[in-house]
Amino acid sequence: MLKELASDNAGLCIVTTRVHVADLAHKTQSPIRQGSVQPVDLENLSPEAGGQLLRHLSVKGTDAELVEAATEFHGHALALNLLGSYLATVHEGEVRKRDLIPHLIDKEEQPGYHAYRVMASYEHWLVATPEKAESLFREAEIIQKEINPERPILHSTQGYRYNDLLLTQGNYQDVLIRISRTKEWQTTRYQLLTEALNLLNLGQAYLLMVKLENMDMLHQAVTALSDAIIALRASGFQENLIRGLLAQAELYRIRSEFQLAKQNIEEVYEIAKRGEMKLHLADYHLEACRLCSAEGKMETGGGRTEAVEKKKREAEEHLRVASEMIEEMGYGRRRPEVEELRK
Q1: Other beta carbons less than 10 A from residue 181's beta carbon
Q2: What single-letter DSSP state applies at residue 10?
Q3: Please, which contacts does 244-252 make with residues 24 or more away whose CB atoms are closer than 8 Å?
Q4: Distance of CA 158 to the CA centre of its chain
C-alpha cells in the first residue's frame, strides 16, 4: 500500500517509525532529487517536554524532579511513556522511586536501553501480577522488532523469561519455535549465557511434553538439561543456575531418581541462602515438598508406615514455609502451585 501511495497519492499519508522504511527509499526527497516521500527526523523530547509527559501520565513530583527524570532517560519518548505508566501503576506515581529501576548490564550499550530498563522492572513486578505479563512481553517484543528487525524476537535473558511464562501456560509449541529461530543468533557478549538459557528452555519444553502429552521425550530432556547445567555453571550467573538445577531436579523426581533430585535442591538452597534470593528459597521449598511427597508415595508401596509419615511431615513443613514466604513477598505466581500441593 505504501509503495502505491508513494507512486500516486493526491493526499497525505503519515508514517511514524523508529526504523528506516527501505521500500520507500527510491521515492525519498533529497537536495539532489525530487521525491514523493519526505522524511522528518524527530529529536528526542526536551527535558521540559519530557517532564510534561510524565506529569500527564500521573507521575508525582516537582517540576524540577520530573525534568531531571526525563533527562536521565535522554528524552526517549517510548521509555518515558513506559516509565510514567510503571511509576503510576507500581509506585503510586512517585518519581523518586525510579531509582528502584535496575540497570541492565547486558543491554546498556544497545539502542532502546532505557525502555528495556523499565520493561525489566515490569518483569520483577509481574512476579506478583502474572496476568499482565504476556501483554507486556509482547510490547517488549514490538520494541525489539523496531530496534533490531533482523532479530525481532526477545532472546537471551528476556527471551528466557518470556519462554518461561509461555511454559507455565503449557505452551511448549511456541517455545520450541522461538528457540529454533533464535539459537543461531550470535552476540558479542553473554553468548554462553544465551546458549545456556536456550538449552534450559528446550529441556523444560521437552519435560512439559512428557508431563502434558505423555510423549517419549525424556531422553531429549535429560540431554538438554544436562548441557544447560554445564553451560550455566560456566557462565557464572548463579540465579540462572538455580533455575536449571530446579528444572533438572523435577526431571530426576519424575524418573524416581530421588537422591539426584535431593542433591540438586540442596545446591539450590545453598546458593539461594547465601545470595539472599528469597524468591528462589520459596521455589526450593516447593520442589522439596514435591520431592518428599514423591518419596512418601514410593515408601507406601513398601508398606513402611513410619517412613511414609516422616516424609508426609517433611512435605507439610516445606509447604508451610513456602506458603508463608510466598504471601510475605507477594509472590503471586506461585500461589496456584501452593493450592495444588494442598489438595
Answers
A1: 13
A2: S
A3: 244/196, 244/200, 246/283, 246/284, 246/287, 247/200, 247/203, 247/204, 247/207, 248/203, 249/287, 249/291, 250/207, 250/287, 250/290, 251/203, 251/207, 251/218, 251/221, 251/222, 251/225
A4: 4
> Which residue's entry shows cell 511509576?
87
Angstrom distance (rounded) from CA 73 to CA 289: 44
Cα angle at 304 between 303 and 305, to 5 degrees? 100
Cβ 72 vs Cβ 84: under 8 Å: no
Q: What is the pLDDT averaged over residues 267-287?
A: 93
Domain extent listing, the chain: 265-343
Residue range 179-211, pLDDT digits in tens: 998 877 755 556 888 889 999 999 999 999 999
Give the tens place of pLDDT for each residue, 134-181.
777 787 788 778 778 888 888 887 788 889 889 988 999 999 999 998
DSSP 41: P
Element (H, E) at 45: none
pTM: 0.66
The torsion of the CA quartet 327, 331, 336, 338, rounded to 10 degrees, works out to -50
| One-letter-per-residue 3-state SS of 108-132 | CCCCCHHHHHHHHHHHHHCCCCHHH
Start-to-end Cα distance in the chain: 57
User: Residue 252 in contact with residue 218, Cβ under 8 Å?
Assistant: no
Contacts 24+ apart (CB under 8 A), 10-19: 17/146, 18/78, 18/146, 18/147, 19/146, 19/147, 19/149
CA 239 to the chain's CA centroid: 13
